[in-house]
Amino acid sequence: MTETQTRAEAFTQRIAQMIEAMTAHDLDALMDHYDDGLVFVDSASAQRFTKDGLRDFVDELWVEQPDFTVRMAASHALGNEFAVMLEASASMPRRVSGEAVQVSWVIPVIYTFDPSSLKVVREISFSDEEAYQQTLADLGVA
């Protein structure tokens, strides 16, 4: 097994544990996967967060979308970086009827791991905001 394959397996396992913590709404378990010096960049809002800021961001996300889930659809490792294509979903109310509809969208993310601790030191989350808004409009949510 090559070093890249070994890293990819370790990174995949870490992301799977992070997804489990997200699904369980276990903020402490999720935050355990992040280095204290974390830099989190959310491209949709053009905001940068520290670890504490990410904690607040996730907590607010769970309040707004309590059934928010993600699954890893694809990934690629290169050095200490791990590019992941996440499929996110949450139920949202239709604008007119208020009926809940399940909405899914893609979130490309690049994680940079500390090679010793395997904690995330940098996370960059991307979003095609225009496509996301179109999906919401097509479903009558936006």
TrEMBL record:
Chain ranges passing through the membrane: none
Pfam families the record matches: SnoaL_2
InterPro entries: NTF2-like_dom_sf (IPR032710), SnoaL-like (IPR037401)
Domain of life (superkingdom): Bacteria
Domain SnoaL-like: 16-105
Coiled coil regions, renumbered to chain: none
Protein's name in the database: SnoaL-like domain-containing protein
Natural source organism: Nocardioides aromaticivorans
